[in-house]
Design goal:
DNA Polymerase III, Chain A, domain 2; 8-stranded antiparallel beta sheet; 17% helix; elongated
């Protein structure tokens, strides 16, 4: 196997596939990329057994064949080569020899036959969705996913496909994010898909804001997304997502309207003196004013006041400031609407007039 390619072609391709390659692997070959050369193009694949990313790029000179090469080392070599340098990769005596200019690098390889490809989606439901819309669904909700919860179905993001809507939901049991898009993807019946945490993070990194269509194929145990020259295959979280609609408060009598940037800055300043472990900040809603209070075990205290639109009874609610900052980071626009009932119930946050999004945040005792 041998091919010559420009650095500005190889480096972006490596960037697409090395993101899922773990630095510490249970199997040595999982630290390698599979390279397959055929005609005038190279197919590059990386996997961690849960997610597989594949990309294709054209080359000038080549000899057909396949091999596996160390992902991180090849990436680091290419990063440190001069811009627009031509790079030659050649497999010789079980070594991958990388040459560029006067530089020569000899890397170890592992048998290509041992590379653990994931099964492709067979007889799956296929449809298309705009790349920018898919990215928006993830960015609006992914922050609320659980990380290592024993309720494994929470360690992922739920996407619901209906005849006329797409809904993304994530929750870790303390907060919930839901975003709905009125987009028909041609589904004849409703389907649910729980996308694993790592796949969500990798998709957010890879997807752009173009109007190009992402082709999705849903199988029983895995799904596949193809955008441009990149194809990602991922296992599906096996489990039933909780009935999230039951935890969204419906009748909240009190409403406040705040400037998003003012609130973010006030929370950032107040949180400096909050308890480092619990990150609690008390918000007190009084007429036309929001008071923020935080303190820590060292008896240090921070107080802030900002203006808001509110004309109801005084209410104090404790929040994890990190949860609020995540919500504010996902909300578009300049104003934030908060709905609540009392200091012991969950509140609903959203952008002003943004009926397509709901962020539920549970209170905390301070």
């Amino acid at each position: 196997m041998e091919f010559v390619v420009n650095r500005e072609i190889l480096l972006p391709a490596l960037g697409k596939v090395t993101g899922i390659v773990e630095r510490r692997q249970t199997l040595p070959i999982l630290g390698n990329l599979h390279l397959a050369v055929e005609s005038d193009r190279v197919t590059m694949t990386g996997t961690d057994l849960e997610v597989e990313v594949k990309t294709v790029f054209n080359v000038e000179t080549c000899h057909a064949g396949d091999a596996t090469v160390p992902a991180r080392k090849l990436m680091d070599i290419c990063k440190n080569l001069p811009e627009s340098a031509d790079i030659r990769l050649k497999i010789k005596d079980d070594r991958c020899v990388v040459t560029s200019g006067r530089g020569r690098f000899s890397l170890g390889t592992l048998p290509a036959a041992d590379f653990p490809f994931m099964e492709s989606v067979q007889d799956g439901v296929q449809f298309s969705i705009g790349e920018s819309l898919l990215k928006r669904l993830l960015e609006k909700t992914a922050f609320a996913m659980a990380q290592q919860d024993v309720r494994y179905y929470l360690n992922g993001l739920l996407i619901e496909f209906d005849t006329a809507t797409l809904t993304a939901v994530a929750t870790d049991g303390h907060r919930l994010a839901k975003f709905l898009s009125k987009t028909a993807v041609g589904m004849s019946e409703s389907r649910q898909l729980i996308v694993p945490n790592k796949t969500v993070l990798e998709l957010r990194r890879q997807l752009g804001n173009s109007e190009e269509c992402a082709i999705m194929s849903l199988g029983e145990k895995c799904f596949q997304i193809s955008v441009g020259h990149m194809t990602m295959t991922s296992k599906i979280v096996d489990g039933r997502y909780p009935e999230y609609e039951r935890v969204i408060p419906r009748e909240l009598g009190k409403v406040a309207l705040l400037n998003k940037e003012e609130l973010k800055r006030a929370l950032s300043r107040t949180a400096i003196l909050s308890n480092e472990k619990y990150r609690g900040v008390r918000l007190t809603f009084v007429q036309d004013t929001l008071r923020l209070l935080a303190h820590n075990p060292e008896q240090e205290e921070a107080e802030e006041e900002i203006e808001l639109e509110y004309s109801d009874d005084q209410i104090s609610i404790g929040f994890n400031v990190s949860y609020l900052m995540d919500v504010l980071g996902a909300i578009d626009g300049t104003d934030v609407q908060v709905q609540f009932q009392d200091g012991n119930s969950s509140s609903v946050w959203r952008g002003k007039g943004a009926d397509d999004e709901i962020y539920v945040v549970m209170p905390m005792r301070l």
